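Table S2 (continued). Query chain:
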Amino acid sequence: MALFGRRRDRRKDDEESYAEYDERYGGHSDDDYDQVDDRAEFSGTLDLDETPDGPFDEDEAPDDGRGRLDLGSVRLPIPDGAQLQVEMEPTGPVKAVHVITPDGQLTVNAYAAPRSGGLWNEISNELAEQLRKDGARVTRIEGMWGTELAAWINDVVLRFVGIDGPRWMLRAVVVSPVDRGDAGVALLRDVVLGTVVVRGTQPMPVRTPLPIELPPAIAQHIAGSQQQG
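Corresponding output:
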């Protein structure tokens, strides 16, 4: 894993393109949403005989020896050769940590959710509606964890997955060039399968993003860059 290493020009251009979609589709509104018709256009098949083990709640985290980046509310397995890009809120807190690879940009976030579950169903309807308003072709796919959204807009393909856990919902999106869409989905699934969610015990309103805490080395790197800038 490379942290904020030198990027090739092509990858830098890709990141700038992906950032547009992360900004638009990276969060959730608390506004009311309308149900939309998402009958699948997908004609492929997927073996759903086995229930995936991950992602994991903190209480069920595996002792598998796999290295994970501890971001407070989520612990992510980072692919070899990947780079990290930290997105900050204007007021200072970390909004997201993006995993940059040649196959696309992956973003994983956790949110407070009701004990009864079902938040991803609401969010996926909301996302599909917004994507269609923006001119994307959207289809709903039955994937490893249930409903997934695939969207094609301009020269990129987006894949969204969501998993309802105990008082949390994990949402992941990968934004890939169209010719790397399948590889982007494989990247997303591998990372999400190994992710650990740390909900904490404090009460939070539903849909509140669980806080992201940077490891000291990354936080120091950002602080140093800001001072130099």
